[in-house]
Queue: 2 jobs
Job 1
Amino acid sequence: MKVLVLGATGNLGSRLVPALLNHGHSVVAYVRSSSKLESLLPNPVYRQISVVQGDAKDSFAIKKAILDSKADAVVNTAGLAALPPWGKSDLPVIFRAVLDAVREAGMERKKPLRTWFLGGLGVLNFPETETMFSDYIPIYLEHRQNLALLKSLPPNSVDWSMLCPSTMNPESSDITALSSKGKLIANAVTPPLWQNYWVKNIPLIGGYLTCMMNAPRYETTLEQNAELIASDLETLESPFSEKTVGVIDPK
Ligand SMILES: NC(=O)c1ccc[n+]([C@@H]2O[C@H](COP(=O)([O-])OP(=O)(O)OC[C@H]3O[C@@H](n4cnc5c(N)ncnc54)[C@H](OP(=O)(O)O)[C@@H]3O)[C@@H](O)[C@H]2O)c1
């Protein structure tokens, strides 16, 4: 597939570029600064990709980049959610711009565009409930409004998935190194291998304590998540279409 990556200079995006190439995809990096990307990536990697310079808040430019490059899929890693519940970042504006661009590009092509977005653990549901993790631990709340936008889309307008990891750590300072750890276990809508502890039954704080005890179990690596997206984009019909996706390292 030809994949347009927004945020290719970031922690995840920079690792996604080599992971996509390793899976046989072609990469178009949409970045604010091509010279920053060039200084980040080793020359043999940089020479294998196309680069478009632009702002991720500029929906028109993103749509043009998708159509001009004939991209089959888009991954948005641009923008970083604010941590405190009162925090504000550029992510919601970026998210909407990318979403509008992929929706309109899909309409022009008469085929919904496969698109991965980034969310966080907080927008996954407790197993067998509609309660979100962030109902108990209200951080990174901008992901909630982004997910609400995806859920309000008319059916079949964007073939989206939202990857919802907890903290992602680097395995290596070499951003071109592929993951040496095992594959992540991924699950739609709820965190995989969720554990219920006895504290769950404590009135008022049981849910909060269960989240706090589960949270560290969901730390993964940037390389593992890059691998998951790159490998999903090899499939024509993803099991994660129109779903949030939780991940855990089985080890
Ligand atoms: N890192 C984690 O542990 C973690 C965990 C869960 C979820 N997430 C989510 O995953 C996503 C990626 O995280 P990350 O750690 O890779 O973020 P990051 O390292 O901060 O990267 C953000 C990227 O966004 C780009 N960007 C920001 N504003 C832009 C704009 N207006 N136009 C074009 N590009 C723009 C930055 O480009 P410049 O280089 O030009 O600034 C950079 O490449 C975020 O949405 C984050 O909330 C991250």
Note: The two ends are 30 Å apart (CA to CA).
Job 2
Amino acid sequence: MTVDQIGVLVVDDNDDDAVLIGHSLTRAGLPVRVTRAETADEVTAALTGRRVDVVICDYNLPGVRAEEVLVQVREHDADLPFVLVSGQVGEETAADLMRAGARDFVLKDRLTRLAPAVQRELHEAAERRRHRRLEEQLRQSERLDSLGQLAGGIAHDFNNILAVISGYATMLTEELGPGHALHADALAIEQAAARGSGLTRQLLIFSGLEPSRPELLDLNVVATDMQRVLSRTLGEDVELSTMLSLNLPRITIDRSKLEQVIMNAAMNARAALPSGGRVTITTEVVRENGHVCLAVTDTGHGMPPEVAARAFEPFFTTKGRGRGTGLGLATAYGVIVDAGGTISLDSHPGQGTTLRICLPPAEVAAPVSTLVRRPAAASGSILVVEDEDGVRDIVARILRRAGYEVHAAADPAEALRLVHDGLRMDALLTDIIMPGMSGTQLAAELRKIRPALPVLFMSGYTSGPAPGGQELPADAPLLHKPFQSENLLNAVHAVLP
Ligand SMILES: Nc1ncnc2c1ncn2[C@@H]1O[C@H](COP(=O)(O)OP(=O)(O)OP(=O)(O)O)[C@@H](O)[C@H]1O
Ligand SMILES: [Mg+2]
């Protein structure tokens, strides 16, 4: 059957009439494939068999009433066009049938009217289906919206809890040392907390609640920097190679989100390679539009077309409950499209998959972010302002252990009091959303006294525009909660003069 062929089910007891109906449609240029049915059973069989696009039903059937056929058709597909054909039928009956959902009515001695009626019905059914699909999409996006709000609402508290768990676990692990009987237990807590933060972060990025901080990046640098963590993710039996095109134009995107996209692709590749294989990261420039692309190719089991068609759908997963959230590619899609780029999949069952992201080249030249190296022992005095007791304590302990002198305040008012009483500090580390005054306002206040005061913000999430005075300056260094102690120390070191 060709795609364009129209599946017509003619319900008629008379062979000649059925042939005539088929002819009248063919003569009008409609490419039809006609199936005939006489009884209810035959109608059922026909509807569940090959595709039926329109049902043409005779009104005077000996074996089954047209009304019953109509009910049968509607139960099968509420949008399927149904055209009634009859030698003679009372006006009243016709009106009844139309009310019951038959959409058109043609007299047998006026069969030239049939083809236009069928065409109109097909067109209208297509419109109805399109409408339904749009409504479904709208409902789906509304569902996702409220899900995002829900995620954002709990993510803040959840992140604080995770920061505390992971901070203490790290400290426990280090304190106990590898020789201790409980070392493995502490390590397990640390890893579980890290998985938890990974998941929250994925949810926050997916729901668009994590603020974007686009920067100028070289895809080659990002790919190279990620090589170590990627090969750790892929494991020993997967060979990772990179094929980088030199001199790529730079792109603008939030670095940590881009890394998350690449990480998601790598984890999918890992899952598609249960007994090992190869993953290749390629960068290149598309000649036609100058877009810069990065592709992650695996030699894994690939996807059948019906999986590939749904792979970007949020919560679509073939990994089973508890093993995959189905947010990996949906998140990747959101991040890349947000940054003005495109993302596509190319997959062949049994051969492998390529996930390709393309981003427009950046227009303005801005400094490329560089990685800072942190010295072994730190020094300096830091004022930590955070209203969440657990987070404040663990942050203070991490900083003290690294060698910093730490002063802690539970809110901006206390911080201002400390400074007023003569506290000297080399940097301010502050939460953003706090009671009374925001972290950004506090920073502004302190900078009236110390204009060059280095400030590092920490934040669980910001959902859209923050309440008055809480917007972050574009270049403000920001640490997302929950963070590993490593990130905290790196960020603090980076803002210090
Ligand atoms: N490289 C790949 N090879 C084969 N199938 C893939 C690949 N990438 C994605 N898929 C298919 O697409 C589905 C959706 O991927 P996605 O990353 O969105 O979610 P997931 O991997 O199932 O869950 P999560 O990312 O939360 O672990 C996967 O379940 C898998 O069936
Ligand atoms: Mg995934």
Note: The chain has four domains: 6-129, 148-206, 219-359, 381-495.
